[in-house]
Structures are given as C-alpha cells and as structure tokens.
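Hi R.,

Here's the chain you asked about this morning:
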Amino acid sequence: MWSQQIGHTRSSDTTIIMRGVHRQHSVGMFTSLLQQTCSKSSELTTFNFVYLPCAREDDNVNLGLAFVNFESPAACKAFLAVLKTENAGQFYVRYAGRASLQGRSLNLLHLLKTRGHEGLIGPGAPRVYRNSQRVSLSEIMLNELPRVELQHVPW
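And here is the predicted structure, written out as tokens:
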C-alpha cells in the first residue's frame, strides 16, 4: 500500500522538500508533473525554483528528493492541498513538507557553497522560473545573490 505524509508548514513558508520522488524522473519530467498539479489548484500556484539533487556520478538518477520554492506562501499551501487530495501518486512522494532553507535565494546560495559552480550546470542543475516559466539561472543569480558570492563563478 502506497502512502504519503504531508508535513506541517509555517504560514510564511515558500519552500518544500519532497521525499521519495521516483529516482528516474528528470528535472524536466518532474517540472511537467509540478505544472500539471499546480494547474489543478483554484489559487494561482506558481513556483520559481525546482531542484532534484542527483548523484554526482550520474546526473540521470536523482536522489529521490525534490526542493520546490513557490512565489508566495499561499501558492505553497495551495500546492500542498492539491498534493494531498490528488494522492501524489504520479510523483511517488512519500513525504512533502517544510524545507529547512526557505526562499529561492537561500537555496541557490546553499547550492553554490556546497556544490560549487559545477552544481549549477548540466542536467542536475536547479531550474529557476518566473511565473512558472523557465528563465536563465545566471540572470536570477546575478540579480538575487550577493556579488561577493559570485566572484568565482564562471559564466
């Protein structure tokens, strides 16, 4: 029997972690499922950051985790409500709830510090969006992250 748990979030949360994501999902496949699920919400549910950490040796196999940042706390809550009622089977999600880092900028900064610029390129790189439409990662990073953090990133 497949089961899932929706964890508690704070009223200001915009970033969730999803555990148990199908390991063969690419970030593109996952984003398509995310867009389909968001379209089922009566609220405007838009996201601006999607990251599926991959094994360093194989960008085609994710680690079963996904991080999604929504553009508002209301959008985050609306997505979790749809996820709960839709049973989330298509995501193979066992848990969805509050991520420890909140906001797109903090997540990007954390990735830059832990994975270096190599973690920001290739199929395993995070994707960023504006109104749920993909935009340039370098543009977002240049606009949102402190300049001192970006001085060694080769664009």
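One quick note: The chain has a mean pLDDT of 81.

Cheers,
M.
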